Amino acid sequence: MDKNAHFFERVYAVARKIPYGKVTSYGAIAKFLGVAKSARMVGWAMNKTHKDETIPAHRVVNRKGLLTGKHHFDGTNLMQQLLESEGIIIKNNQILKFDEVFWHPNS
DNA sequence: TCTATGACTCCGG
DNA sequence: CCCGGAGCCATAG
Question: How many structural domains comprise chain A?
Fold first, then answer.
C-alpha cells in the first residue's frame, strides 16, 4: 500500500494544525503518524514542505526545542523572527519555556 | 546496487 | 542537561 504517499499529506495536515504561538517536534509528529522511528523523514518532508507557504514549518523543532532547521530558511534568523512574532521567546536558537509552548498533535 | 547524508531520537554514562 | 554511540529510512549521486 502507498502509506508513504499519505505520509507527506499527513505531515502537512499535522503541521497546519499547529496552533498559533505553539510548536511541536518532529518526533511527536512522526509518532502521531505511527512512524516514530522515522522522525528524520518528517524533517525531510519539512524540507519539501518549504515549497508550500501555507505550512508553518517554523513551528516544528527538534525535541530540545532547538531551531535546528533555521538554516534552511531564507534568512539566517527568519525562523526565529517568525516564532518570536507569535510570542515565543528564543535564546541562542533554543525555545524558552518549551514545555509551555509545546503542542501535541493529538490535542 | 551501494554508499553517504540528514530540519531526529533514544539510550547509557 | 551534555556527550558519544546506535537505530532509523527515504533520497541523491
Answer: 1
* Banded model confidence at residue A2, pLDDT cuts 50, 70, 90: very low
Under DSSP, the state recorded for A27 is H
Please report residues contacting nucleic strand C, using a CB cutoff of 7 A. A 4, 35, 37-41, 44, 64
Rg of the Cα atoms in chain A: 13
**Nucleotide B6 C1' to residue A100 CA (A):** 28
CA of A28 to C1' of C9 (A): 17
Task: State the pTM of this model.
Answer: 0.92
Give the CATH number, domain containing residue A55. Answer: 1.10.10.10
Residue with cell 509551555: A100
Nucleotide nearest to A44 (CA to C1'): B7
- Name the closest residue (CA) to the C1' of nucleotide C11: A44
Q: What is the pLDDT of residues A54-69, one digit of tens each?
A: 999 999 999 999 999 9
Q: Are A61 and A69 in contact (CB under 8 A)?
A: yes
